[in-house]
Amino acid sequence: MRLEGVVLTPQGFRSGALEIGPDGRIIQVVGAPVEEAAARKGALPIILPGFIDLHVHGGGGHDVMDGGGAAARVAQFHAGHGTTAIAATTMTAPWEDLEAAFRGLAPHVQVRPSNGARILGVHLEGPYINRERLGAQPDHARPIDLAELRRLHALAPIRLVTLAPEIPANLRAFRELLAEGIRVQIGHTEGSYEEAVEALHHGASSFTHLFNAMPGLHHRNPGVVGAALAWAEYAEIIPDLLHVHPGAILAAKRAIPRLYCVTDSTSAAGMPDGEYRLGRHKVVKCLGGVRLPDGTLAGSALTMDQALRNLVDGLGLSLAEAARCLSTNAADHLGLSDRGRLVPGAMADAVVLDGDLSLQGVLLEGVWRDPDAR
Ligand SMILES: [Zn+2]
After folding, report:
1. What is the rounded distance in angstroms from the CA atom of residue 237 to the CA atom of residue 361?
2. CA distance linking residue 193 with residue 358, whole number of Å
3. Burial 62-101 (b: 16+ CB within 10 A, else e)
4. Residue 374 has what pLDDT?
5. I need a labelling partner for 145 at 20 to 30 A (CA). Which of 16, 107, 275, 358 fits?
């Protein structure tokens, strides 16, 4: 297969084509180098790496915590917005709810849902978080239980766990988590600067929705945010322009070399205003935000194609910078060298856009997403 357009490669745009083999991997990118400004003004479609979203609870009326085929529906919804790989994200919940969610999503990790994003595995957001910083997580927070976590991991692979490192049992578990190949993210935390730095020394590798569900930065008490800005290689950020001020996103981007965007989207994404569920919580979608009845932001209604437009049109990032934040950096955080970039040998995961950054098509592992699919 040959896909013509201006193709973003790690070395910049090329005006030519993406050549894809029958195995769904990229054979090569051909064409002459072209500047980004020319790429955006030209008549050819713009081809970027497919988006990778490592923090997704739901979309299109479905929530990963619903179990059954819900995770597949979520993967299909987000594929319609250019996302080609996700980490299905669970909520802080009792064991029975987590087990049901894992049993439901496991088959869809094995086989990519048709017309859906690849589910790379699970992001376990809690329950091993700080009860004082639940955000919109239900109050089922508890210290880490490695036996419980291993039972879940045996059902479906956990790629990422968000935990509060100031809880001593959580910090002591880092070695076992890392040995299982699970990335540890600092989040839903009351931790101090010192505790966050210690967690980084113990192998924590990212921060969950930086700035949200953690104390803010004060110059004499820099907290977890200060530790992230001073030392992190990776961190998540939610660029819906409701969770974090654009200036704070830019500050984080300048400080953290491989900041990556997540949606933290709920079942309300892509749905009309109204009441929805987030795990065991009732949430309300209104004016683009999703909130608990008390006004606390409860995940988002963001999609990654809108995130791209927010970064480029709202914050002034170049397309190349935006693509790193929306795809490459997330792949790198998971150690996936064959996703998040358009290079020979990589999976042909790509989004096709017009000059206004409207989505024209999505290539999922070398297969076109059916535009008529729900
Ligand atoms: Zn979340």
Report:
1. 25
2. 41
3. bbbbbbeebbbbbbbbbbbbbbbbbbbbbbbbeeebbbeb
4. 67
5. 107
Distance from the CA of 27 to the center of ligand 1, in angstroms? Answer: 36
Q: Which amino acid is at 143?
A: P
Assign domain 50-337 to its CATH superfamily: Metal-dependent hydrolases (3.20.20.140)
- Which of 214, 215, 188, 212 is CA-nearest to residue 92? 188
CA of 238 to the centre of ligand 1 (A): 10
For residue 19 the two structure tokens come to: 């050549």
C-alpha 55 to ligand 1 mean position (Å) = 6
Distance CA 280, CA 157 (A): 23
Q: Name residue, tokens 């195995």.
A: 23
Residue 280 clears pLDDT 80, i.e. is over it: no
Three-state SS for 164? coil
Tens digit of each residue's pLDDT (9 = 90 or more) over 166-177: 999 999 999 999
Decide if 217 contacts 268 (C-beta within 8 A): no
Residue 82 makes CB contacts below 8 A (sequence gap 6+) with: 50, 51, 303, 304, 305, 308, 351, 359, 362
- The whole-number average pLDDT for the span 92-114 is 96
The CA 187 to ligand 1 mean position distance, Å, reads: 10
Report the separation in Å between the CA atom of 129 and the middle of ligand 1, taken as the mean of its atom positions: 12
Please identify which of the residues 63, 97, 240, 264 carries the catalytic annotation.
264
Concerning whether 264 is annotated as a catalytic residue, the answer is yes
